[in-house]
Specification:
This protein has about 220 residues and is mostly helical. It folds into 2 domains: about 100 residues, Alpha Horseshoe (Serine Threonine Protein Phosphatase 5, Tetratricopeptide repeat); about 90 residues, Serine Threonine Protein Phosphatase 5, Tetratricopeptide repeat, CATH 1.25.40.10. It contains 12 helices and no strands.
Length: about 220
């Protein structure tokens, strides 16, 4: 027993923290807390208090579809697009039947250049019964950018049957440009001339494009004036 004590290494004695050191540690902790709080307020502005529980629920997997929807709205308002995309994705997973969430997800994916995923989301929105013209228009443009000419033209054609003249001008422009890229000169010419016949204010519609179309067709056709 004496030999055991003889070879036992002594443990270093704990030094007690002085009151001054305790105060310094507390002050440092409070300072860090205030800095973090300040950064959160700067980052989230008036939504700082609202976003804390939403972040907590999302982190532990207890957030509902409504929680994700609210969180995505805040992220969008603060222009935190990656955050909004993440929450919209969770929202559609939590409630797959919410086609409006699909629309928002698709538009956000387009904003972040995730075109193929956007096509899936916007298609799901339309197939789910969504009738928002903007969804069809953005889906048509997405298809065109991916080289899916047939799908793009079908969507543009459907939109051109609408009654909103201002919107039709925008759709017609995209429709004609898609036809031109596909070398469908006669269809492009007919679409431009149809737009020009609708109103005198449109008689110079797509002049440059119309000139190119006529040149490609060998000069056939006369511009509507």
């Amino acid at each position: 027993m004496d030999q055991f004590h003889q070879f036992q290494l002594p443990f270093p004695e704990k030094k007690k923290m002085t009151p001054e050191k305790k105060s310094a540690v507390i002050m440092i902790g409070l300072g860090l807390f205030m800095v973090v709080g300040f950064l959160r307020v700067v980052s989230w502005d008036k939504y700082a208090l609202s976003v804390i529980p939403l972040q907590f629920y999302s982190m532990i997997g207890a957030a509902t579809a409504d929680d994700h929807a609210r969180y995505s709205e805040i992220c969008t308002e603060r222009k935190k697009h990656d955050c909004a995309l993440e929450q919209l994705t969770y929202q559609t997973l939590a409630n797959p039947k919410d086609i409006h969430a699909r629309l928002k997800l698709g538009l956000m994916q387009l904003k972040l250049k995730q075109t193929e995923k956007a096509v899936e989301s916007l298609t799901a929105y339309i197939e789910g019964g969504g009738i928002e013209p903007r969804a069809q228009f953005e889906l048509a443009k997405a298809h065109a950018s991916l080289g899916n000419t047939k799908e793009a033209l079908e969507l543009y054609s459907g939109l051109l049957q609408g009654k909103t003249d201002v919107f039709q001008v925008t759709v017609t422009r995209e429709y004609v440009n898609t036809l031109i890229k596909a070398n469908r000169w006669s269809q492009a010419k007919a679409a431009i001339e149809k737009a020009r016949r609708k109103s005198l204010t449109h008689n110079a519609f797509m002049t440059a494009e119309y000139k190119v179309v006529l040149e490609k067709m060998g000069g056939r056709g006369i511009a509507s004036q």
